[in-house]
Amino acid sequence: MEVTLSRKTLLWSITILVLVAGAWIASVPWRNGLFTQWMARSNAPSTSEPAFSAVNSMFAPNTSSEGAWEQQVCAGMTPDGCKLFEDLYGPAIWGMVSTGKLPKTTFTYAGVAQEVSRTDQVWKLHTSNAAQPWLYVEVSQDSTAHPWLLLRILFDQEAQARYGGR
Prior knowledge:
Elements: H1 7-31, H2 50-59, H3 66-74, H4 79-98, E1 107-115, E2 120-127, E3 134-141, E4 148-153, H5 156-163
């Protein structure tokens, strides 16, 4: 039994085979996320997120009352984060505010430094303070409304040890 193929049929068969093999080869890095670095996609959270409001209120108070300031900050925090802020960070920061030693600082999102869990992340924020250009904050996503809430600010030593302060 002899099978004869025309040159045209043979060329079409080879072309289809090459296209299928090329598509399969190209799909491997696509499925493994190797092209994502070149794709224009931003996962940056909105600056209207409660976590941003809490950080901005913390370092740029717009009230002369410590209690009102704490309420502003805690409005963008988790309950555990608010308790930590009221017990640890708040008194120290308010002391700097009342003596004029806290420079007004603005923040921009620089990226996710670490995925802690499915709902928790550490964000790297760029600051307008040249002496301390980076701030690392741990945020948690509320499971019902899905906003990002501030859990805590990482201490300088912890940020340096984990992320090299960069």
